[in-house]
Amino acid sequence: SQEVVSEESEEESSGVNLMEFSDEILLHILSYVPCTDLVLNVRRTCRKLAMLCLDKSLTHTVLLQKDYKVNKDKVKQLMRDIGKEIYQLNMAGCYWLPSSTIDHVTRCKNLVKLNLSGCHVTSLRLSKMLSTLQHLRSLAIDVNPGFDASQLSSECKATLSRVLELKQTLYTPSYGVVPCCTSLEKLLLYFEILDRSREGFMLSGQLMVGESNVPHYQNLRIFYARLAPGYVNQEVVRLYLAVLSDRTPENLHAFLISAPGSFAETGATKNLLDSMARNVRLDALQLPKAWINGSGLLQHLKFNNPFYFSFSRCTLSGGHLIQRVINGGKDLKSLTSLNLSGCVHCLAPESLFRKAEDDIDSSILESLVVSCCNLRHLNLSAAHHHSSESIGNHLCQLLSRLKHLLSLALPVCSITDVAASVEKPPTAPNLVPQTFGRKVRIGIQTYPRNLADQANQKIESSVFWALMGSLRFLETLEIIGSSFSSAMPRNEPAIRNSLPPCVRAQSVGDSEVAAISQLTYLQSLTLAQLPNILTGSGLVNIGLQCQHLRTLSLANLGMMGKVVYMSALMDMLKHCKCLRDLRLEQPYFCAGAQFFQALSHCSSLQRLCIVSRSGTLQSDAVMSFMANCLEVIMCHMFMGESLTVCKNLQQSIVRSFQAERPALNVVIFPLLHEDLTEVIRDVPMRHLDEITLFKSRVAEEPPNLWW
């Protein structure tokens, strides 16, 4: 209170008093403050704020999903003070809260939407809670081993019968609460079931006899299923689809299944797709590649006003894409999100006799750009999209017409100028093989660090520079090598060897990275397998110009035997005041005192992940960093250190900071250790999915799929 009074005195002396602003302006300012701070702290400062902090516009929706400082006591007090005023409550990913915290949600009698994904909820607690929430219409929960639907009370089932939207993450073979939700209009299923138990026993995808209740899909409008790797997930999702194959809902307008690897089509799924082709008109579509490849399905499906398509990893040719999906350029102004990741022939007229490295057909891309002029999210990664020498037909030049783009993913080889890609590499570093061989001492060319100096060189005339200049409102950018694969794939041992980069990508380096600094509103940046990084000078420009950057992921830049961009990275980090998530994947990375001292300038940093084969770390530097950066709640490091060093450091961090940071999650482990997969399975899904595992996230799923 004394601090507030002194601040008000200073404001009055300077002629500005915050309390003199209108209520509308103050409410807008307060909307950026976490609800727990508003209710438990800010409203106690003065009478006016006490009234405003309880305004319905601030208490109607309570978001706790990334409030890492919230604990059980704060949640209890929050529910006690404003529970009856809350209509939407999001606690997704609050893995650190004990299961008893859920009991306090019963105070929110008027809840309409509730998200408990990632929270510890037993069958009995769920039953008790839902029995009191008669107005609930939207629910998100996890189904863990031990879940028993028979423990749900009749009052709970009555609530579930009125739920219209359900998001269910499965960690065990089960129908969960789906059979109880007889009015479902939106169903989102995330299958995270492992093939083996912790004891090493193989799991079965067959459901228990008592759980064989038939799901009710008659009102379903949106069906979405995302599968983690593993055959059990495929077995279980087929059981969910079996009912759909018998009778396809008439109002179904979005059907999406995201499945890695091979997910074979069966007679039941074929019947389902045939029924969809006859009876429904879709607005969003995503299918496993085996269901599309070699079939005429797309020719028969009907679309209404499509807003999302994903043909990730399909062998769909550009000719089929234009004819069967884009419909010759008609009726695609509604499309806002398109995922063609890994669709290697999507920009070629046919795929039968084409090599993946052949030049694209610019007319196909031009048709795509003209037809889908309102695209906001576009993913073209994991493929070789090589432009021809035709003037004005470069991929970057055509994409520059998409003025509404907010997120974009491209392969490295697609952004190079054609003339530059066929020239002889100018410096010796380009000739060094991209392998884990002996370190080679070579001269490093000095590159200018000033953005204006670089602009005076060739980069202003490059097609990529022009593309970045035309997409000024881009928020997410991914530039990923077409042959890049992370050293940490899921559910498998760490990859020991990486494929060399595409020949066309050999010239992509510091100047292209510098071009990215034109994106003033950039919030998320991923760069992977850029072979011609010599100093990393472009990173400094990004740090200076992209002041809204919140997520940064760098992987395998420059030579593989040496981290050539370390100095530039440390300079960059000194300017990243808004950075919250940092992921670094680079062999031989040295996480020492200088690196962590530079990283300490990132005052907003919350999550750090370092993946480095043969990488080293300094324990004292890590401890000092954790002590200085009070917001850090996740520290994952998979390096080349011994198991003893890793365990000792992990225990020290937990022992020193867990009490002050309830959400703290620390995993420090040797990258090539045989038990790595067992360690990974204990990482909270929020961190694992958002930062620890590398993947392209642009157009990964439809926008606004869940609130």
Automatic annotation (TrEMBL):
Matches recorded under PANTHER family: F-BOX AND LEUCINE-RICH REPEAT PROTEIN 18, F-BOX/TPR REPEAT PROTEIN POF3
InterPro entries attached to this UniProt entry: F-box-like_dom_sf, F-box_dom, FBXL18_F-box, FBXL18_LRR, LRR_dom_sf
Gene Ontology biological process terms, A to Z: SCF-dependent proteasomal ubiquitin-dependent protein catabolic process
GO CC aspect terms: SCF ubiquitin ligase complex
Ranges of residues in domain F-box/LRR-repeat protein 18 LRR: 75-664
Protein's organism: Piprites chloris (Wing-barred manakin)
F-box domain segment(s): 23-64
Signal sequence bounds: none
Name this polypeptide is given: FXL18 protein
